[in-house]
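Sequence, structure tokens passed on for absentees:
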Amino acid sequence: MKKQFAIIGLGRFGTSICKELYHLGHEVLAIDKNQKKLDEVKGFATHTLNVDGTDESALQKVGIRNFEHVIVAIGEDIQASILCTLHLKDLDVRKVWAKAQNDYHHKVLEKIGADRIFHPEKDMGNRIAEFLTSEKVIDYIDLSAEYSIVEILATNKVNGKTIVDLDVRAKYGCTIIAIKQKGKVDVTPNPMDPLYAGDIIVVIGNKRDLRRFQVNAL
């Protein structure tokens, strides 16, 4: 379903989101006070505007409140990020998502009402750490500080075994939520069907339990 997004701040993070949302078919308004940055995303945005994100009256004039989601991707200027987020909440923007530089920045954004807060460098660091420490991990999604969803490559150790044989929930406290086999995804896998080396097992659980499952079962 096509949605409307406005992205304020076109550093690496903001530009990356802008391009991805545009490629997914959504309407994207790119906002920055640097015209050069706007020129660089003209082919990846529905509209571009040279506006200072800390200028409340300018944001109001461009009709920012009409956008379903506004992403504050302002980089190193924490004060500008906070001020922009505050203006957006004052203008009754429905969903304001903001990039945080550190824990202090996160706390302030939370207190002034940001609906969702990103830590792109920290999140990417977590993902890379998971990939580096396990050759079996294909993809990784953080749900919270304690829980994740992990795509794990099945090895010869489980070849021919079923979900019942693995007894993942009882032994490790994790839940298998899907199996990818031969390019097809089964979100209601039959617990009696065999697994094969090369299959991708999608598991949800506590991070500690997921690591135990990777090490001991696979």
User: Anything to note?
Assistant: DSSP finds nine helices and eleven strands in the chain.
